Amino acid sequence: MIRLLFLFIINSALSYGATIAIIDTGFDLDHDYLKPNILKKETDEEAIDFHGWDFFDNSHLKKPVIEDKSSIQEILLYRNLRAKGHGQGLSLEEFEWFKKKNADKNFMEKVKLFKKHSHGTFVAGIALREGDNINIFPIRGLNLPNPVVAVEDNTTPGHVPVRGKTAEEKFQEEIRQSMNRVSQKFSKICKFISHKKIEIVNASYGITYKNIMTKFRERYKEMTGLEIEETKLKLIVDNYFETLYKRGEKTMLKYPHILFVFSAGNSGLDNDTYHHYPSRIKVPNALAVAAMNGDYLATFSNFGKEHVDIGAPGVAILSIVPKIYSEDGSDLYSPSSGTSMAAPYVANLAAQIKNANSSLMPADIKKIILETGEIKDYLKLRLASGAIVSNHSAIRAALLSKDMLIDQAITLGRSDLIPMEDKISIGIPPARSPEDIQKKVMDSMPSPISPQEIDDEAAPETFTKLKSSSLKDQVKGPQDNLQLPVLIAPDVPEKSADPTHSNQNEVQSQTLSEELPASSSQPQSKLPETQSPESVPSSPQS
């Protein structure tokens, strides 16, 4: 009887299809994995309502940012070995090659450029990792050139000329303009998403305390010729973030039907102490997500008992690579790490919950995700929920909430009193869990991962003058005797077809990592003595 009830619930739930809006940059909207699930409905009406706001320019992914095929092969190998090193460790030969490349500044710039160009594609692939009835809506909204003439709103104040003012006044004016740009862009994006009737937003980006402190300090000296006093700088930075939080909270509360999923940041800092926008905005319809390395909080991940809600897998997460980097048009997959990867994992879970019970509001979905998580004692002082997301329990609770109070559904969802197989609980064939796909990476005690090693989240520009403006096939290339980690190719589900597109930019600058993945002691084949691009094997990207 219970099973018949669940089947009835499933049949009704599958008629609803949740959509995840993804604010990011570097989308391969022509990718045959993403394209069928992209929601895109451009109309003349929208062109008028959002005049000058280009959400759909995909020209940045019509050609690769790195043309040299051998460099791409090295980048893919580097990323793959980095992921392997976070788990079982590298052979001595692999470790020496990785160490050499890590010290090559030119090469590391290419690695950063590649991940910046591909970030939205990685995130979108994770957002579609499970569930047949989920769409994505890429949003390129945080990289408009300055001045920000594209933000056309009756409430937007005109540009205030700064000529004739003192250097100090000009500095303060630039800060105000920066706050206005960031908050106005976010407000416009939310308005557009609400107009599209989208109910889940993934925002794998952030403005960090360290970045703003550095930028403001440098800009003050550039404009005044003086060093800014640190206490004064801290007050300015605190006010900058508090203003963004206040405006962001006001905006988000206008859209209680939208659930916002934010990445918590990759600085390894306590968000209760250090600012991070927008993840520190606390409203009932927002979730801040930390990155987990198996059962452990990733060492690069931000945390916070008050401001970071829950943990989700965020180390060596497999996702798709833009097709423009494939030599033969085959699908490429690569492991990526960061809270940028943990956030879409949760956004995907939120979409599955919404599909299971379309009547649930964002606050309800948040409650289910937080209260069905797997509690870890050591996380109780680090995260608001003290837990790691549990897909199975959360989806089961969502299904049960169709016929009972949400608190009762959560209690039963956490228990084993009503066992349900995955295919019964979500109405599709058993889902591929990241734990299965990357078992060799996640099944051991993690080695420390520095913030410089992860795939940085994109961040909106601040000052005007700071910035103008599936592993089915591995990469083909010359082979040698270097052993590569074995990664399992996920089966890519067939999709329908309809293109869309987006872009978001500005990744914080990062220094080279001083920490390298651990090397294992087991001997393996030697790397060729020469390290020219031609002699380095191809590899799935990392």
Task: Tell me what you see in this structure.
The protein has 542 residues and is α/β, with parallel strands linked by helices. It has one domain (2-147, 197-205, 256-535): Peptidase S8/S53 domain (Rossmann fold), CATH 3.40.50.200. It has helices spanning 2-13, 44-49, 69-85, 92-102, 105-127, 167-195, 209-224, 230-253, 339-356, 362-371, 391-400, 406-414, 422-426, 434-437, 439-442, and strands at residues 18-23, 134-139, 200-203, 207-208, 259-263, 276-277, 286-293, 296-297, 310-313, 317-321, 332-336, 374-375, 387-388. Helix 6 (167-195) runs antiparallel to helix 7 and helix 11 (391-400) packs antiparallel against helix 12. The longest helix is centred in the middle third of the chain and has 29 residues, at 167-195. The radius of gyration is 23 Å and the shape is globular.
What is the topological layout?
Elements: H1 2-13, E1 18-23, H2 44-49, H3 69-85, H4 92-102, H5 105-127, E2 134-139, H6 167-195, E3 200-203, E4 207-208, H7 209-224, H8 230-253, E5 259-263, E6 276-277, E7 286-293, E8 296-297, E9 310-313, E10 317-321, E11 332-336, H9 339-356, H10 362-371, E12 374-375, E13 387-388, H11 391-400, H12 406-414, H13 422-426, H14 434-437, H15 439-442
Parallel strand pairs: 1-2, 1-3, 3-5, 5-7, 7-9
Antiparallel strand pairs: 4-6, 7-8, 10-11, 12-13
